[in-house]
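Progress narrative, Year 2. Work on tRNA 5-hydroxyuridine methyltransferase from Sporosarcina thermotolerans advanced from sequence curation to structure prediction during this period.
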Amino acid sequence: MSEYTTYISNLTEAESPLIQEMENFAEENRIPIMDRNGIDTFVGLLRIQQPKFILEIGSAIGYSAIRMVSSIKEVSIVTIERDKERYESAVEYIERSGYNDRITIIEGDALLMDEDLIPARQYDALFIDAAKGQYKRFFEKYSKHVAPGGVIYCDNMFMHGAVLIPDEELPKRNRTMIRNLKEFTTWIMGHPQYETSLLPVGDGILIAVKKRD
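Result:
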């Protein structure tokens, strides 16, 4: 944690006991959730946007979904998780949070599942935080559900610095994933239908605003 991050952290209010419990659970079980700096920035962006409906790809244990609904009074979230154990943990945490009336969680592989399972509406925001090597496929499948003027957010765009390492120096098991992530970044940064920015916050947050016709 940098000195600036520590300084900012000391200025913010302590999170609820449930959020702290989830952060500890994720750390102890090596479950990837957004770090505090990244989620605080992300939630801040959502407060500016004020979306009514968010579609999330990658629930994990429900941490980001709970943080979003607790910060934006009128937002409702549909979130998808393919890992059964994480899905079950997310269901429990969402119920304990008291936000189960505003968070709909679906168990399934977002790349394989029937899109009819998703409530039919235009979403104001799409948050992609799942398999990093599949970001382009997630984007292509679900971006059509985002309303014109809506925003698509993607986390972990830096993969803890791995995108800066030449392919030949990466572990072989990670090369395809990192190559796909970098290709997706180049593709979306130049996409004519989106205004895209990449923020050096947390592990890198990409923001793509869908242009209006």
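The mean pLDDT is 93. Residues 3-210 form a domain with the Rossmann fold fold (CATH 3.40.50.150).
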